[in-house]
Design a protein that fits this description.
328 residues; alpha/beta; ten-stranded mixed β-sheet; three-stranded antiparallel β-sheet; 10 helices; globular
Length: 328
């Protein structure tokens, strides 16, 4: 890459005019140029369109709230850049953020995506670091359950390193590779869209690189503070766990995930969470009908990759062990 490539920034927005007033200026101040900034709007009723126009970004209004992954895909479809930068609207960026994310691509043509370092908005504590996959979370380190029996945790590193996941809140992707593997899975409206696409990309021989010098700040969790937002997140996470386990993991993980997700209905009812119980039943029924499709996609993916879900999982786990063995 001898000349600066055009990078298309894709931002999904829903009634986030106040966020855009901070996010868009910090993108315009990036040391890397040229940038194309696209705001894909999920049916906002505030003045998001006016704010987008004020900062000379491109406005793509959707008729309804289609969720995150479908909106990101629609933005990517019209983007002109050689690279796609997916970010949230409730973020601000260091001036060298884009330049740092782009740098690793120049030396490795098998990189699918790079991932940046996120700080919490107010107190500048790390919110997102190098993400590691494990069956057994290390003691003294907070972790998140990806699906039953698999966890991920975050680790501070000083240089770019291979990881199994890039956050969709700050992910720079090679557009040709993104198109080649079919983009985000549209059946994931919120949550797990980044884990799913990264898992597919790595299965097909691509790499994900975490870049600690690509720094940004994020109002983490701001989309889930209303009841509507909490329900959207709840449905998204449930869908993500069911799809990821059925489509990409060894079958025992799928069976356990479906069992625990179904048993969770009793917990919802016991806590009198009637709305969430109804949401759970709808998701379970909807995705149960999709299981044959998930299994067909699973067979096709692993056939094309020349591997199996078990071998791929072992490879993903080995990424963590190999990085840990380098002596940080």
């Amino acid at each position: 890459m001898t000349e600066q490539p055009l990078i298309s920034v894709v931002i999904v927005n829903w009634n986030g005019a106040h966020h855009l007033r901070v996010c868009l200026p910090s993108l315009l101040e990036q040391s890397h140029q040229p940038l194309e900034i696209l705001v894909v709007d999920n049916g906002s009723t505030d003045d998001s369109a006016a704010v987008t126009e004020e900062f000379q970004a491109r406005w793509l209004p959707l008729k309804e709230n289609v969720g995150l992954a479908p909106a990101l895909n629609q933005g990517a479809a019209i983007a002109a850049g050689k690279f796609l930068l997916f970010v949230n609207n409730d973020m601000r960026f260091d001036s060298g953020f884009v330049e740092a994310l782009l740098a690793p691509f120049s030396s490795d043509n098998r990189i699918f995506a790079t991932d940046g370092m996120q700080y919490y908005w107010e107190d500048s504590k790390p919110a997102h670091l190098a993400v590691r996959l494990t069956k057994h979370p290390p003691s003294g380190c907070s972790s998140v359950e990806l699906v039953p029996g698999l966890f991920f945790y975050q680790q501070s590193v000083s240089k770019p390193e291979t990881v199994f996941l890039a956050s969709a809140a700050c992910m720079l992707v090679r557009k040709s590779a993104f198109v080649e593997i079919g983009g985000f899975d549209n059946r994931l409206p919120m949550g797990y869209e980044d884990a799913e696409i990264c898992w597919r990309a790595i299965t097909l021989g691509w790499k994900i690189i975490y870049v600690p010098k690509a720094i940004c700040w994020h109002r983490v969790g701001s989309s889930g503070r209303s009841l509507e937002g909490a329900r959207f997140n709840f449905r998204g996470i449930l869908k993500g766990r069911l799809l990821l386990s059925t489509k990409l993991l060894p079958l025992r993980y799928a069976l356990v995930t479906w069992f625990i997700s179904t048993a969770g209905l009793m917990k919802d009812l016991g806590r009198l969470r009637w709305i969430f119980a109804r949401d759970r039943v709808k998701v379970l029924f909807q995705f149960a009908l999709l299981v044959p499709m998930f299994l067909r996609e699973r067979r096709a993916l692993f056939r094309d990759a020349g591997t199996t879900p078990r071998k791929q999982l072992l490879y993903m786990l080995r990424l963590t062990r190999e990085e840990d063995s380098r002596g940080r």
